[in-house]
Design goal:
Blueprint: H1 6-24, E1 41-44, E2 48-51, H2 61-64, E3 66-71, E4 74-79, E5 82-86
Antiparallel strand pairs: 1-2, 3-4, 4-5
Length: 91
């Protein structure tokens, strides 16, 4: 499965390249150590090394502005900044 955006794909490729570099040096006794931070990874003080999944918006503003979700017994459709309440068709 492909990542959802080009930005997520870029970070996935960086992590794959980093891992491939480790495998390609597996026959070397003391391989050159590359820093994973910036190669698809970032350092979180609370949980340590974490993968960078994306840095840009997941969806363009045009897509985000037209969103439908359910609130209690009503379905809400967001059109820009206008909320339109519809009959609930979602169980």
């Amino acid at each position: 499965m492909l990542p959802p955006t080009e930005d997520a794909f870029k970070h996935h490729v960086l992590r794959a390249k980093f891992q491939t570099n480790i495998w390609c040096q597996s026959h070397i006794t003391k391989p050159a150590a590359e820093d994973p931070v910036g190669n698809g990874w970032f350092w979180n003080d609370e949980s340590g090394l974490q993968p960078t999944l994306f840095k840009q918006e997941l969806a363009p503003a045009e897509v985000r502005d037209i969103t439908i979700f359910s609130v209690g017994t009503k379905t809400v459709q967001l059109l820009g900044h206008v909320r339109v309440f519809l009959l609930n068709s979602v169980a």
